[in-house]
UniProtKB/TrEMBL annotation:
<feature type="domain" description="PD-(D/E)XK nuclease-like">
    <location>
        <begin position="166"/>
        <end position="406"/>
    </location>
</feature>
<feature type="compositionally biased region" description="Polar residues">
    <location>
        <begin position="82"/>
        <end position="91"/>
    </location>
</feature>
<protein>
    <recommendedName>
        <fullName>PD-(D/E)XK nuclease-like domain-containing protein</fullName>
    </recommendedName>
</protein>
<feature type="region of interest" description="Disordered">
    <location>
        <begin position="45"/>
        <end position="108"/>
    </location>
</feature>
<dbReference type="Pfam" id="PF20516">
    <property type="entry name" value="PDDEXK_12"/>
</dbReference>
<feature type="compositionally biased region" description="Low complexity">
    <location>
        <begin position="92"/>
        <end position="101"/>
    </location>
</feature>
<dbReference type="InterPro" id="IPR046797">
    <property type="entry name" value="PDDEXK_12"/>
</dbReference>
Amino acid sequence: MHSPPGLNAAVEAWIDHIIAAGGQTIIMSDGPDSLPTAEAVITPRKLNKRQRQASTAFSNEDLETTPRPQLSYRHQRRDSVSEVQSTSTADTSGTPRSGRSSPRKKEIALRRTLDWPVARVNITELKSIPPMLESLAIDLKRIGDGRQSLIPDIFRESMGADAGVLDQPHPDWFYTAQDRQEELRDAHHQMQRICRNSLKCQDKMEYEPAWNDLVHCRVLEEALEGRAEVDFRNITLCRTLKIFHDDDPALRENKVDYGIFLQPTPREDDGLAERLADLGSENIDITHFTLSDFAPTPLAISIETKTLQANAMEGSVQLANWVRAHFRQLARVVERRRHDPSYQLPILPIIYVYGSIWRVDFAHRYESRTMVYEGICVGNTHTVYGCYQVCAAVRRLAAWVKDDFRKWWSRTAELPTQTQA
């Protein structure tokens, strides 16, 4: 049955009018009597004042609760590179990645684990310090408190001219320099450069890789220059060996940024280089991870760096979990060399760099717990004197690696029968 020509023309004209006016699609019942007028479709119904307020509130609430993508594709690409160069468990904007435990949850897991749980103590609250740690801790505290003369006095006048009225250098910062002035000037220029880079990184809110390249790496280079027995390496991509993993899935994997290593050479008299090579030939791990060149160089000090955009707890949690794996590896060496079960492991310094501030903590296995003594801030790279402080602290730690840590490895790498002989 065909519709009357007049009706078809009316419907087509009405549809054209709706399309031209941008009206909404409607559902009609059958029959010509159900057709609305064009005005009824495209003319909105007026709202009273109360209805308009309710509509506005609903729209605002909808905007606030609507999920939005956190990063653009360009930012995702840049952050994927940063993840390779950084050990952070959060992305470079400071937003935690999904699928990973938060620092707080990991800290709780560290405290509740049955396998050498972590207990933290502020080192300044200790009434007595373990003897093997006392001298080192006191020296670092003196450096951090600004009670050490670290800058040659040939720079006192220029530093005073550069400083503000309320930020003049303290007389106690300087010592009398008699010789090697050209070498001292080169070192001072490097300190100034590190300080400028540190301020620039904060001003530009740089990501962690930029801080590592422009500031932290240069501090370590300057501090350890010329020290053949001790060196540092970037170990961001080194993963803990499975044999030293924690049983708890939340604590199974961890990484840090840098390591300071003992570098024994075959020319030395104590034969440590040869004994370390023997350990390797017996499949005894020298570190709890694999270096890119498989070098038999024991890890002495672990360093984790974070920007101020990261959760402050995150670096401390990473270091604590990492050092627990380090202790497992050291205990494994003691066991494989058939030493007595009561054989004492060393106290290990760990360094946490948060923004521009360097802090030295100490980890120690004591009475079935992993004790972490926290709280010696040794310098701030936002000032030239702070750069001198950090370098002085790293050099003092390097001296500990060369002496105390080396002695522990020389004694431990031997079989008990050889030691007694």
